[in-house]
Amino acid sequence: MFHIYHSNQLSLLKSLMVHFMQNRPLSSPFEQEVILVQSPGMSQWLQIQLAESLGIAANIRYPLPATFIWEMFTRVLSGIPKESAFSKDAMTWKLMALLPNYLDDPAFKPLLHYLKDDEDKRKLHQLAGRVADLFDQYLVYRPDWLSAWENDQLIDGLSDNQYWQKTLWLALQRYTEDLAQPKWHRANLYQQFISTLNDAPVGGACALFSIAYFYLWYFSIATSLFASTASNRQTYRKSIYCLLILAAITGEIFKIQNSSLV
């Protein structure tokens, strides 16, 4: 069953969540609630709000969506490591090792000014972290770009920045293989994951995720606020949060994530 709730008041959505937690409690007090949040700040706010409403908020885990998705990969697919070799932290350290090797490449000229006067490599670490964050977002929102680059294709309509990004992504893949680390990441596992679910019996998939009811609770703002131009929509989407809640039969599973408005 699929339900969608949306409101422009987070407090109202929180109250609805409390209602479901009170009226659909877990079968055992030792079972853990799993609440997916888009940011640590949201988890802290929600933890405080739940404690105030329920009197206590204990044995609740707040993984980020990427962490939860990877957990699902390891449960459904065989041979998938518990930790991804393409996590943001792992990519940051690898990119620190790779970036200096490419700074003489003309395609990397846009990055040179970030590394001026960097004797202690602090700027290199910061730049590697920013690029790792960019690739991490591509893994979630633009897996088709990464697949195209891996097939030596360019993306139409992108700026010249894709040249150094493509080169660095392919170098990151090769470096990961040289370290004898698994090649799997969210982009190349997604289709395999979906195919496996499609081939599995419906009952098995439901039992695996323990989902009997599916609730989506959105934090929304009037659509009239959103301009029709892509640039304005892009500006607004960065400030909008969307609250998604998945209520499970053996335990409530909640998901809070950014608005998908484009």
From TrEMBL:
Keyword Repeat assigned: no
GO biological process: DNA recombination; DNA repair
Chain ranges passing through the membrane: 202-227, 239-256
GO MF annotations in UniProt: ATP binding; DNA binding; exodeoxyribonuclease V activity; helicase activity
Top-tier EC class: hydrolase
SUPFAM superfamilies documented for this protein: P-loop containing nucleoside triphosphate hydrolases
Keyword line: ATP-binding, DNA damage, DNA repair, DNA-binding, Exonuclease, Helicase, Hydrolase, Membrane, Nuclease, Nucleotide-binding, Transmembrane, Transmembrane helix
Pfam families: Exonuc_V_gamma (PF04257)
InterPro entries in the cross-refs: P-loop_NTPase
Keyword Chloroplast assigned: no
Catalytic activity, EC: 3.1.11.5
Alphabetized PANTHER family for the sequence: RECBCD ENZYME SUBUNIT RECC (PTHR30591)
Protein name, per record: Exonuclease V subunit gamma
The organism of origin for this protein: Proteus mirabilis
Gene from which this protein is expressed: recC_3
